[in-house]
Amino acid sequence: MTPGRRWLVRVATSAVLLTAVAWWTDVGAVTAHLAGIDPRWVIVALALSALQLLLSAWRWQFTAARLGLALPLPLALREYLLAGFLNQVLPGGVLGDVSRAWRHAGVSRNTGQAVRAVVLERGSGQLVMALIAVPALLSLFGLVSAAWSWGSAAGVAAVVLVTAPRLRGPSAHAPPGIITDTRRALLTPTALPLQLLGSAAVVATYLLVFLAAARAIGAELPAAQLLPLIPPVLLAMLVPVTIAGWGLREGAAAAVWAIAGLDPAQGAAIALAYGALVLLAALPGALFLERVPGGQRGRAKAADQRDAPDDSRKSNRTS
Q1: Residue 120 within any structural domain of the chain
Q2: Residue 11 belongs to what domain range?
Q3: How many domains does the chain have?
Q4: Is residue 216 part of a domain?
Q5: How far apart (Å, rounded) are the C-alpha atoms in residues 298 and 21?
Q6: What is the tens place of the pLDDT at every residue in 135-191?
Q7: What is the rounded distance in angstroms from the CA atom of residue 146 to the CA atom of residue 139?
């Protein structure tokens, strides 16, 4: 399937899912929740998104540095913002990350480790998200008590924090590879606490943006009741069958709210507001679509000169 057809299929999937959610929850009820969005909470959500960008860029910079790759923070911020925009408009939700890995590879001249830096940085975040989402799901379905579920997650995190750095680390001259680089970036006594702390801060911003979206549409659920409902909704967005999670996110929110004995239309409306806020925060990334990192630009120019006909090169020398 061509990229264009894949994009159309996922747009159609999002449209079908959104239509199904509107039919199930009653579109009138959803729009009633969305009426009169409070702009003050929109500003809060955008400020939290800016903080999320900074934390994520730092996490990428830190991971790359552990692998011996230079990544200035301004470059990491710009590339992460561009990646966020691409993830919002392209199918799969990961092509933006592929883009920043490729572009950093052009600057660092080390494709393997540039790709692994992005994979490991994203993996650090997904690990923390799983530690939060799994307990939330277990308690949501009543399989275990909330206290036991969250206590178990904290115990798992503590075990990882204590035992992982005790694994035999790589020698200074170990060749690069996924296992060696995973140990260097994630599992040393220095790296693991900072990775977990950084990823926990990033995940916290996701939850808080969702909370801001709820407050923006006037939902008055107490934060202690609302926050445990959010991780399963965010987890649903990882399924790569739509554009940026549209449709899946709203359907998951409606289902989670229904399971929790709440109004499904409210859950869908909050998810719609959240998606719109995330898209709005990512739009500035479009400004960097035509910008190529300096290392790539220089190599591309050199390659063009090498591939140019002889008479073209002569004219360049004489000009």
Answers
A1: yes
A2: 3-132+202-289
A3: 1
A4: yes
A5: 49
A6: 888 877 776 666 666 676 667 667 666 676 665 555 555 556 788 888 888 888 888
A7: 5
